[in-house]
Amino acid sequence: MINKIYKRITAKDFTFLINILLYLVAVIIALPLFFLLSPHLPNIALPLGQGIHLEHLLFSVLVVGLSIYVVIRLKHLVLIILGIGLISIIVSSSRGNYSFQDAFQDYVVSLYNLQNNPVAVPLMADDYEPFQDAYKVAEAVNLQGVEVRNYAVKIGTKYFSDFIDKHNRSLIQSFSIFKEINNNWVYVSDPVGEEYFAAASETISQQQIDGKFNGDCDDHAILMAACLKFVGAEVRLVRTTHHIYPELRVGTKDELDKAIFLIRHKLFISESKGKSVYYHVDQDGIIWLNFDYTGRAPGGKFLQEDIVGILEF
After folding, report:
1. DSSP per residue over 43-101, as a string?
2. CATH no. for residue 134?
């Protein structure tokens, strides 16, 4: 008798746990759907407090309800897919690859970026004019300089070390370099009628006098490019009508989402608050993030000038 009751309770408990799991899956599915579709809803704000968005409340109930209905109706399929996914992550995690923490972080990043869409500048042209003074600029980057390498490593590890993992080391160190250079940059124009390209080593030596970097846009771009290269990042310089600025190679849309999450939610919270993140997509679909001195956070707004040349290293 007692054994039968125990089996009955165990079965009920098991069914209850399965239902809870299915409801959780439904919510996990509903959240990205809500963030993806909510910007297209009509504005029905109630005059209470700061304005309660009635359309958001009603839509969230609708999306969660529909998600629960679909998941319950397809529960056997959902459980099979969920089981396969869990086994895959367990195996991957045991091999030191993709873990449950990675999966959770990717989900959070996706949700965050659905709420904060970055600004993609339209696809850039396939062909540009030859980069003016390309030889002088490349020489000024001075990639072989020991002084530049030592300084790049120093400032690349100065900030954000707590956020480094095996997947983002170069990106985090690039952000550290951006912070150090841009927070201490003082714009100084070239002599009238002369285009002077300060070598990266020269700008570093000059910075040691008063703790500030001094120079114009090309001096900044040269220093940034040199330092980024020494921490394993890929960088290019973009020349516009009257300006030169560096761009960091981010790569794919997924990698951009992770970078934006770090910028807005972890590393440059106050600097990026209320601002869009700007990037270019080249003809091969590769994403390049703006690293200009005009922004206090990576991905600052581009100057409204036509691009006339690109220099890749």
Report:
1. --EESSTT-EEHHHHHHHHHHHHHHHHHHHHTHHHHHHHHHHHHHHHHHHHHTTSS-HH
2. 3.10.620
Q: Which two tokens stand for residue 21?
A: 């799991």
- Judgement on whether residues 218 and 256 belong to the same structural domain of the protein: yes
For 311, phi and psi rounded to 5 degrees?
A: -115, 115
Q: Which residue segment(s) compose the domain that 80 sits in? A: 2-98
Question: How confident is the model over 237-263, as pLDDT tens digits?
Answer: 999 888 999 999 999 988 998 999 899
What does 232-276 look like in DSSP terms, one character per residue?
Answer: T--EEEEEESS-EEEEEEEESHHHHHHHHHHIIIIISHHHHTT--
> What one-letter code names the amino acid at 158?
K
Rounded CA separation 276/267 (Å): 15
The residue behind tokens 């919510």 is 27
Residues 215 and 305 in one domain: yes
- Contacts of range 135-140, beta carbons closer than 8 Å, 24 or more positions apart: 136/197, 137/197, 137/218, 137/221, 137/222, 137/237, 137/244, 137/311, 138/311, 138/313, 139/199, 140/197, 140/198, 140/199, 140/200, 140/222
Specify whether 159 is located in the same domain as 194.
yes
30 and 125 assigned to the same domain: no
pLDDT, tens only, 210-226: 889 999 999 999 999 99
- Residue 123, Cβ density class (10 Å: 0-12 exposed, 13-18 middle, ≥19 buried): exposed
